Amino acid sequence: MKRRIIIICTTVITTFSVTGTYLYLTSQQTSAPERTASISKKDFPTSKPKNSNQHDKDKSNKENFKLETGFGNKTLEVGRLTGKVSQESVNQNKNFEIKLTNDKTAEAKKKGSSKPKNNIIPRKVTPNKQEPTEEAPIQDINFYDKERVMNPIDAQLESLDIAALEEKEHLVIGADIAKLQNLITTNQLSYKELAGIYLNRIKKHDQNGIMLNAITEINPTIIAEAEQLDNQNEPNKPALYGMPVVLKDNIGTITLPTSAGTVALKDWVMEKDAAIVDKLKTNGALILGKTNMSEWAAAMDDGLPNGYSGKKGLSKNPYSSELDPLGSSSGSATAATCDFAAIAIGTETNGSIILPAGAQSVVGFKPSQGLVSNEGIIPLSSRFDTPGPLTRTVTDAYLTTNVLMDEANQTPLSKDALKNKRIGLLSDDESNEETAILKKIKQDLRTAGATVIEGITLEELEQVDADYITLLNADFKRDLNQFLQINRSPMSTLESIIAFNKTNPTRNMKFGQSELVASQNSTMTKQEADNVANELIHITQNELDSVLQNERLDAIVSAGVGGSVKFLAPIAGNPELTIPAGYDTESNQPKSLTFVSKRNTDIALLNMGYAYEQISKNRKSPILTNQ
């Protein structure tokens, strides 16, 4: 009996030993590749590289990073969004998966399957084991300098009753300018409380909670400024009177730093406000702060993620952490959609307002080239750069644009503006797929009185694409150097900024600076650049004009993120208006409809967009909880 017990025990121990050894060896084989995998050219290195000198090399031969956006059976791509958008990048069919592993090393692996996706491929960040508190420093290396935003918020909220603010917060969520002004006129709200509610929401949701990271600077005196407006009781107030506004971090201000998202300029306070800031202040608007952006308007490196800056880190899409915020004005879109301000201002060179507006379910308006001054805005290309509003409604975009353009006309927009209008539906993107959202778009346009002309196409102008990128490199070097010197920047040249970035590659140029180097290496003369620009403008204007005229269209509309019209229109100088069109039922990804009309028909375009918005009523505010 004793011998049998010994044999049984020996057998059990041996079995456990063999099983344990097998499991250990299996886990080692499984985990080893994850720890030792090499990073390809398309990877996003978010941890400090072993050899920091690799960042010093010119990456001009690096392949363009492509972010897939899928719609039904059509796959579109948006590359290097959106200071420099290429037409080719929105028409290719390659799928990439973006993944952030636990050590925050991002890997972009080209997928062999051509099966289309129904949502933007995730850029998913694995959460820290311990949630950050307000007191604890943020450990996420993609979230920098929390105290820079939190200190002026906390200092001002000390004088306010937070419980009272949160009791009134529901009145503000989703409210347009007219509703906010009515709340204040009827003494349900004050300008001081309105500013306080926005500051508290930024504290709760942008710098804590789901940590959207859309805000980079806070005006330390906005509560005092708002209280002063409350005490003035001004009669016949302008539409934007007392409305808190956030500005993209490339728009110059005399009191807050202006950096274009860079570490090199993160503390630079310009000696005067940008022209549009002067106009906003003259009309009683209050500057609440600055918004995060793709560094140098996406002209830093072709591997830079949308919404990432060395100054503040990576901003997120509030509709889902798995959705891309898109565009270099992504922080302004986030601020508008999340009610962090009454109004947000972005800038567009090619797609930088329109694309993040569509991705984050707000109205984005890019005015006709030349109607709004870009004086005092850090340039990408001064010949194309155009500031414009990101708001929750078309009416708010209209009211803001009137101020930016010094337009005295305050005639209300008309919900009948689409009656008897011919609207051409572009067929080179999501418009090809008869989704429920697209069916509703067409029905809403027809209900509003429009005749929808389907199957509209635009020529793919590959040479325009290539020449445009070359032109932007030349423009950026020349325009930036001039801007820095005229405004007495601490960094006086692009060359000095490139050198500065090399002093701390991990923070200053985490994803490289190949585009900065390409611009610095540009040898195109001013005359050559002007000649190329004139030719590109002529070609794109002819293409859009011919389609509008031949089909007798009042506007072209494009559903979804991609579409050649969104590449051509900014070069041609045509106005663009993006409006929320619905949400994907599975991913909650916002869908949008973009209107493009003839040059200098901005008010007519806003009217048509308003008429569509009043029929469709698609927009829903994001739910700001951990997702």
Describe it:
By secondary structure, this protein is of the alpha/beta class. Helices cover 38% and strands 14% of the residues. The chain has an 11-stranded mixed beta sheet, sandwiched between helices. A 3-stranded mixed beta sheet has the order 4-3-5, with no helix packed on it. A hairpin with a 2-residue loop joins β1 (66-71) and β2 (74-79). α2 runs antiparallel to α5. The longest helix has 35 residues, at 2-36.
Précis, in short:
This protein is α/β, with parallel strands linked by helices. Helix content is 38%, strand content 14%.
List the helices and strands and how they pair.
Blueprint (H helix, E strand, L loop, with lengths): L1 H35 L29 E6 L2 E6 L16 E5 L5 E5 L12 E2 L21 H12 L4 H11 L4 H9 L5 H16 L8 E4 L3 H11 L11 E5 L26 H8 L3 E6 L3 H4 L9 E2 L3 E2 L15 H8 L5 E6 L5 H6 L3 E4 L19 E6 L2 H11 L17 E5 L9 H12 L3 E6 L5 H25 L7 H9 L2 H4 L5 H7 L5 H25 L4 E5 L5 H8 L3 E8 L6 E7 L5 H15 L11
Parallel strand pairs: 3-5, 7-8, 7-11, 14-15, 14-16
Antiparallel strand pairs: 1-2, 3-4, 6-8, 9-10, 11-13, 12-13, 12-17, 16-18, 17-18
Secondary-structure class: alpha/beta
Q: What is the oligomeric state here?
A: single chain
Helix count from the secondary structure assignment: 19
Overall 3D form: globular
Keywords:
18 strands; 627 residues; disordered N terminus; alpha/beta; eleven-stranded mixed beta sheet; globular
